[in-house]
Amino acid sequence: MVELLLECASGGTWVHLIYPSGVVSPPPVSLQEEVIFYYLKQVLEGLHHLHSHGWWHRDIKPSNIGITTDGIVKILDYGGAMRRGLNPGQGMTVNYLPPEVCADKQNCSEKMDIWALACSVIFLTTGVEVYTYLPERIRAVTNGPLPTDQKNLVKHIAAYGIHVVEFMPKDDRYTWLKNLVKLMLNPVPHDRWSALACLDYINRKEKLTPTTVTVSVPSVLPDIQQLLQDQTEPDAQCKDTTSGYQTQPPRREGDLREIETRERNREEQNREEEELGSQKEFYPGHIPIDM
Which residues, if any, are the signal sequence (predicted)? Predict the structure, then answer.
């Protein structure tokens, strides 16, 4: 068994950026383009490092992009990651699948991570996963009924990827971002931009429109030290400082089940003793049970 230990991202995930409670409940928080680029650039740097070493993440999505309270991005969940040249197994979330993988899961490459990241960016600007309303939106794009065969459906998904940018906010807040997302959603994997090309685009954007981004991310987790303390406290008797008596710690679910089992066994034993006409024996701590 292989266990992966990941660094704690106490600032939550990309989901928490627009839904601070972690629950997808519109309306989402509106983010400035500079803030999105700030986080997007870090993810692209991580993906470029991963891809340059021959690995694909294969499950990029908002809930798998963590953030520390210092605003540092951490790519999470490498359970579906795959090395170039290996046979693809399970991996990726349906709402973030590129068209080539929908057609054949063997069509895996680093470009699938780019498509999924573009869908994640759209989530940051709309608060909705790209494929949530896919049937209705495909009809809106194609002005026709949904195809029933998989081959034509994949073609529609590819076309939908190009048009989905139109569902981003219509104002001028995301001009640079929209252009980049279009290039990341190219239906042809070979022509879809790489992580390095996307980074070059962002660097050019920063030179032409320099801005200062101040990021403050509140922790979405309880105090870690307190959690550790709670877990390591001895399961012994606790002193009641108000009365001076020794009191038992709160019962856990397992303790309650054990007590119930003992009581049932005692009831059965008492019932057998009564049937035999024997005298009940009382001893300190014994709890008589009414039959």
Answer: none
Q: List the beta bridge partners of residue 65.
A: 75
Instruction: Please tell me whether residues 181 and 239 are part of one structural domain.
Output: no
- Which of the pair, 274 or 22, is modelled with greater confidence? 22
In a domain, 8, yes or no: no
Name the residue range of residue 62's domain.
14-208
Angle at 260 between CA 255 and CA 263, to 5 degrees: 125
Asked if the bond preceding 88 is cis, omega within 30° of 0, the reply is: no
Residue type, 178: K
246 and 203 part of one domain: no
- Tokens linked to 95: 């709402």
The whole-model pTM stands at 0.69
CA-CA distance, 178 to 39, in Å (whole number)?
Answer: 16
Residues 52 and 135 in one domain: yes
Q: How far apart are the first and last CA of the chain?
A: 52
CA separation, residue 243 to residues 249, 250, 251, 285 (Å): 15, 17, 20, 22
